[in-house]
Inverse folding.
């Protein structure tokens, strides 16, 4: 499936090729017509020869006087994801050895050479494709002109022309490369601008709402702080009055303490004088005690004598007490005898006298 080279005289050769003027001899061959594999040993090249024959005739008539080379692309559209390797396939028809051909893969968007191969050598190419392209030489002997591009990106999207020149022969085919990025998508500029505007408007609205709420919260906070300050002022006023009262009481207490200190000072002075007097008395007492000690020597002798006499008196008293007890007993006995005598006398007085 490929688009073949169209020369400026293609419209003049339409009827010569057996097509109507409204037909395109170089139109894209649909994939449904690719029924069997050609004899070029290409894994994906399948074109019916009966369908291809009119196109080959048309190509031959495009540039009279120059030999035409038929280049066919098995797939006009190749898709890949970003970062993958992709192979752009082209095939010479009929199959022939392309080792000594001049093969160029050209990016149509920039008209730059993606890969240039000639007579077994890789020549100049675009800077952004250096080290990323490889012409698969294993298939050159079978007429395969496949180009591998590694690590594709969205900048590689576009149409690529495979141009082959062998002596006086010339041919080309076009392959479209589509690269998709699963994590991003191409967006039209007006959509981007609209998204930016909407984002700015939404962001502005959010910022305005945020600032309004912040201002309202700040105003409420200020009112609350003002109320707290008023309460603090009242409390501080009450505390100031209380502090003044306490200060006056402290002043009074200080005066009382000062008076007490004066009285204590006087008392201490008086106590100092009394201590001096006590010291004098102590000295006199010491002298008196010493004098008494000197006097106590004969007094002790007298006391000893008195104690001895007291003991003697105790003995005499005990003896006298025993004697008194004996006398008391004798007195009791005598009273009893007297009582008996009186009774006897009474008995005698009552009895009649004898005649």
């Amino acid at each position: 499936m490929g688009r073949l080279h169209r020369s400026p005289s293609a419209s003049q050769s339409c009827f010569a090729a057996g097509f109507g003027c409204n037909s395109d001899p170089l139109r894209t061959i649909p994939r449904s017509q690719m029924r069997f594999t050609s004899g070029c040993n290409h894994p994906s090249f399948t074109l019916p020869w009966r369908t291809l024959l009119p196109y080959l005739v048309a190509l031959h008539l495009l540039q009279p006087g120059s030999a035409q080379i038929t280049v066919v692309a098995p797939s006009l559209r190749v898709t890949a994801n970003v970062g993958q390797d992709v192979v752009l396939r082209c095939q010479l028809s009929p199959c022939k050895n392309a080792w000594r051909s001049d093969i160029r893969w050209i990016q149509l968007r920039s008209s730059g050479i993606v890969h240039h191969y000639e007579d077994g050598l890789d020549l100049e190419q675009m800077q952004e494709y250096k080290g990323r392209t490889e012409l698969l030489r294993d298939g050159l002997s079978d007429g395969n002109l496949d180009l591998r591009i590694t690590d594709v990106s969205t900048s590689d999207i576009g149409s690529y022309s495979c141009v082959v020149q062998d002596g006086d022969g010339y041919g080309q085919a076009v392959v479209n490369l589509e690269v998709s990025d699963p994590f991003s998508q191409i967006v039209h500029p007006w959509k981007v601008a609209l998204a930016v505007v909407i984002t700015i408007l939404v962001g502005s609205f959010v910022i305005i709402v945020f600032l309004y709420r912040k201002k309202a919260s700040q105003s409420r906070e200020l009112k609350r702080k003002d109320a707290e300050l008023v309460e603090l002022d009242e409390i501080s006023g009450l505390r100031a009055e209380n502090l003044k009262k306490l200060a006056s009481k402290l002043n009074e207490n200080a005066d009382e303490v000062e008076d007490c200190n004066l009285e204590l000072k006087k008392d201490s002075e008086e106590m100092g004088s009394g201590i001096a007097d006590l010291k004098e008395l102590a000295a006199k007492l010491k002298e008196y005690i010493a004098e008494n000690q000197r006097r106590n020597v004969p007094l002790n002798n007298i006391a000893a004598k008195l104690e001895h006499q007291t003991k003697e008196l105790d003995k005499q008293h005990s003896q006298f007490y025993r004697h008194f007890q004996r006398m008391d007993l004798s007195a009791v006995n005598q009273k009893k005898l007297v009582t008996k005598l009186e009774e006897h006398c009474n008995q005698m007085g009552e009895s009649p006298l004898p005649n």
